[in-house]
Amino acid sequence: MMQSVHSLCIGKARLFKGGSKSAIAKQPIAGIVRIGTQGLEGDVQADRKVHGGPDMAVHQYPLDHHAFWREEIGNLALLDDFGAFGSNLAVLGMLEHQIGIGDRFRFGTALLEVSQPRQPCWKIEHRFQKKNMVEAILRSGRCGWYYRVVEEGQAQSGEALALEYSAATDWTVSRVFNALWGDPESVNTAQLKELSRLPALTPKLQAKAEGKLG
């Protein structure tokens, strides 16, 4: 798999709701960007308790999903923004069911490893001023995912995001998302045990899978 990155996007912490701050509004940045273990240089995660850190350094939300959202919430101008959902990488042709936890992608000189799905939160609904978007993500599985940075480097828009190593796992982003946030009847005890020990999955979600075992 190899897809061109249309844009790299970063965000600054801004007042969001009730005095809280958020950097979900990512905007394209021109030129060469350094990618370190904490993410893209200049990018901010306002709430470090739930966003950012080495295991969630770079976020990718498929551009393909913007068409779904136009049908779901209307043709809002905000959906023209590459970073409308807080995505750092604007890419077409990569979807959750195609991407495995632990897959590694070369982007410029950096090496990124898929670490977990993105859990939807209320900030998406507040950003778009539309209710039921979280429910739509849970229903449709259009969640996006995070990378950790295995090798720091630099990249720029127009360069390829190229699969360098396939984890060859059945645990795709879609399957992990469904197991942890979807229909509880769709996952059994053996699968949860396997998920709780999945090496490339973030420790937080390993623990979440273990917690579902009771």
UniProtKB/TrEMBL annotation:
MOSC domain span: 27-164
GO molecular function: catalytic activity; molybdenum ion binding; pyridoxal phosphate binding
Coiled coil: none
Pfam families: MOSC
Gene3D superfamilies for this protein: PK beta-barrel domain-like
Name of the protein in question: MOSC domain-containing protein
Origin organism lineage: Bacteria, Pseudomonadati, Pseudomonadota, Alphaproteobacteria, Sphingomonadales
